[in-house]
Design brief:
Low-confidence stretches: 1-29
Helix content: 10-25%
Oligomer: single chain
Number of helices: 5
Strand content: 25-35%
CATH superfamily: Glucose Permease (Domain IIA)
Distance between the termini: 76 Å
Largest sheet: 9 strands, antiparallel
CATH topology: Glucose Permease (Domain IIA)
Number of domains: 1
Structural class: alpha+beta
CATH architecture: Distorted Sandwich
Amino acid sequence: MKTKYLYMFILLFLGGCAVPTSSLSVTDEILDKEGYLFYQNEEVFLHASELKNKLILPAEEYLVPDYLNLLPNAKRGYRSGYHMGIDFSAPLNYPIRASYAGVIIRSNAYQQDVDIETYNSFLDMAAQVGKTPDDIYNFILLGRSVVIDHGYSITDKYRTITVYSHLSSIVDGLVPGSIVEQGEVIGFSGNTGTSSGALKNEKGAHLHWEIFFDDASGRYFLGQNIPSDLLKNNIELMFR
């Protein structure tokens, strides 16, 4: 009897090993994301080859950084969120340029930083929520900022906008509805919206820059779901 049961066990084991791989949910094929600017799924993505026009760097002498913490997808524990842009290490009051031509959506030249106690209370609120609320992010943490609508001029697949944040000042007369050209100076780098801004000092100046892609399925950011080993190279494909 023992021999019989042992024989049956061996048959079951070998049968299990013989299950064809096509029945498994895990695919052996891994998508190569080289050249992708973001990837959501097989229908929602943007490859660099699909760009109609390329951008210029917003802080002329400052390249896309190597440090992953300054690139998209980096964790931002202090606000319970993730980085969706690029931090260019431009010093205080460095001229910031429009990366591409478009129409101004937002220009909050007179926004004032909250005091450090209020700033920290907003971060505590984000921790309770478990993510950075959009209102806290857009109206407090970005500081003085400019948002430019580029429509479908960069790619036919998505409407695009660019965001320029933590500015020390914004060019006079730049208001919603204004048209700007590629390379036009729109403001100057600073630290508004940061803890240093709340402390009223001049530390930590830089440009936080974002680009978003919109379609009927949602909004996506540059570098979304791109592996860290490809991230910098893929992002650089977007610039001249």
